Known about the structure:
Layout: E1 7-11, H1 20-35, E2 39-42, H2 48-59, E3 64-69, E4 84-88, H3 91-100, E5 104-107, H4 112-126, E6 134-137, H5 144-155, E7 168-170, H6 173-186
Parallel strand pairs: 1-2, 1-5, 2-3, 3-4, 5-6, 6-7
Amino acid sequence: MSVLPRSVCVFCGARAGNDPAYVQAGSDMGQLIAQRGWRLVYGAGDIGIMGEVARAAQTGGAPAFGVIPTHLMQVEQGKTTLSTLVVTETMHERKKVMFTNSDAIVVLPGGAGSLDEFFEVLTWRQLGLHKKPILLLNTNGYWTPLASLIDHVIDHGFAEASVRSFFSVVDTVDEAGQALDAHFNSLMP
């Protein structure tokens, strides 16, 4: 019986953004996943930060599990050279398949889709549906306004202070690796 490697779900932009550090963080995250012997779970696109994460992970030898809805196969240039490719009907199904096939979530810079993915897994955590770590990779302060918004929501009584403890903000890929190592090591018997 084979044991699957630890799986890290990466939510990120299908665009590169306007700071080269974002794409570099994607490449570095993919390399880290491969170096640790983990499996990448991601949105199966071959463009933007998403494509860079996958290229780096696969180049380093990591298995890549991609999930993409039918309607985005052309738009996001669905990558068909993955270890596993799952094509879904809806975006919601995509998120669910990615989440259920991962042990941890890392959110790199991205747009509305990445925000949607982050808030979905954060809400599931708040409701007690999982205890997977959620990391915001705050490349060049990209997620600082999001963390401030969540503090604002807490300050105004729309969430308990505990919500802030359901995710961590890390500034570098190395810090993300350390946080993931600590989590995975805590699961060892």
